[in-house]
From TrEMBL:
Pathway: Cofactor biosynthesis; pyridoxine 5'-phosphate biosynthesis; pyridoxine 5'-phosphate from D-erythrose 4-phosphate: step 3/5; Amino-acid biosynthesis; L-serine biosynthesis; L-serine from 3-phospho-D-glycerate: step 2/3. This is Phosphoserine aminotransferase. It catalyses: O-phospho-L-serine + 2-oxoglutarate = 3-phosphooxypyruvate + L-glutamate; 4-(phosphooxy)-L-threonine + 2-oxoglutarate = (R)-3-hydroxy-2-oxo-4-phosphooxybutanoate + L-glutamate. It is an enzyme of class 2 (transferase).
Length: 354
């Protein structure tokens, strides 16, 4: 049965990427060896890493603007610590928009003063704080562009003179932004890029080297930059699949093209949530995420019927996170419009039954 994969991450990847990636596990580009049994210093893998790094900068429009792209280990969670290790000298500001922001704040507090510049905690993170002021003496301001669990997304980024650091794990490569506003962007691969195991870090070189502490080698961005993202053995498979996905996106027309599709998918589901009395949206309308739609069922008696209908239609991965409950339909870049259509049809069918 055809599955419709709404998983929040790891999540759906393009079919042709999966096909090519699985072939490369058996044999990479006719070289008689598997991608995962060759040296990461071989010319074949070095060119894969180079391509992944340059595609990341190209898609974000950051080529030739003083940025470096790295593929590191440890997930986005290690970046919570690494960003602070490399950039936090005295004081940093964080906007608390949910679980992942809180985890970032916790790590940064190990290394310096952290000011919570704004928070939406009092409403269980169902909106994005706005209109807050950013102190001018911060080493950086940390934001989470898309809150995977709560289904909120920053639409307008604060204007500030302090360096901007952004966790884009769950919406990287999904919408057009002026990425040059950011000094450091990080994102775990397992949403819009590839399998878990690699984390993309895009860093503006001139913000590095300013903290007074000694930085352990594996946590030091400057070392990873100098070593061209090969300080130690990189997660070769995750980097390869990420490279294929970025190439897929480029061939499709880049971020501008996918954004249009993502908007259409999101409009389809949010219109249904708005019009259908059986469902209610969790996130504030103006802050709703293009990637993760969070919603509840208004009549608990219909829950079992809805779950059964979803199961029978091959819909997978729409249970909400335990801290929000209800449902979450994640619609990452590779999710086809057709899958959203199937879900929306079931939602409107349920209304007729209700
Ligand atoms: N930030 C965000 C926005 C996330 O969605 C996630 C994971 N879902 C993380 C950070 C943590 O990522 P990882 O599991 O790669 O450490």
């Amino acid at each position: 049965m055809k599955k419709h994969n709404f998983s929040a991450g790891p999540c759906i990847l393009p079919k042709e990427v999966m096909q090519k990636a699985s072939e490369a596990v058996l044999e990479l580009d006719g070289i008689g060896l598997s991608l995962i049994e060759i040296s990461h210093r071989s010319k074949e893998f070095v060119s894969i890493m180079d391509k992944a790094r340059s595609l990341a900068l190209e898609l974000l429009g950051l080529e030739g603007k003083g940025y470096q792209a790295l593929f590191l280990h440890g997930g986005a969670s290690l970046q919570f610590l690494m960003t602070a290790y490399n950039l936090l000298d005295k004081k940093a500001g964080y906007v608390n928009t949910g679980t992942w922001s809180q985890k970032a704040i916790k790590e940064a507090r190990l290394l310096g003063d952290v000011v919570e510049v704004a928070s939406s905690q009092e409403h269980n993170f169902n909106y994005i704080p706005k209109g807050y002021s950013v102190p001018s003496d911060l080493d950086y301001l940390h934001l989470t562009s898309n809150n995977t669990i709560f289904g909120t997304q920053i639409k307008e980024f604060p204007e500030t003179n302090v360096p901007l650091v952004c966790d884009m794990s769950s919406d990287i490569f999904s919408r057009q932004l002026d990425f040059s506003k950011f000094d450091l962007i990080y994102a775990g691969a397992q949403k819009n890029m590839g399998p878990a195991g690699a984390t993309l870090v895009v860093v503006k070189e001139d913000i590095l080297g300013k903290v007074s502490r000694k930085i352990p080698s594996m946590l030091d961005y400057s070392i990873h930059v100098k070593q061209e993202s090969m300080f130690n053995t990189p997660p070769v498979f995750a980097v390869y699949v990420s490279m294929l996905t970025m190439q897929w996106l480029k061939d499709l027309g880049g971020i501008a093209a996918i954004e249009e599709i993502n908007e259409r998918k999101a409009n389809l589901i949010y219109s249904e949530i708005e019009l259908n009395p059986v469902f209610s949206g969790f996130a504030a309308k103006e802050d709703r995420s293009l990637m993760n739609a969070t919603f509840n069922i208004t009549d608990d008696a219909l829950k079992d019927t809805f779950d059964t209908m979803c199961k029978e239609a091959g819909i997978s991965g729409i249970n909400g996170h335990r801290s929000v409950g209800g449902y979450r339909a994640s619609m990452y870049n590779a999710l086809p419009m057709e899958s959203v259509g199937v879900l929306v049809d079931i939602m409107s069918e349920l209304e007729k039954k209700g």
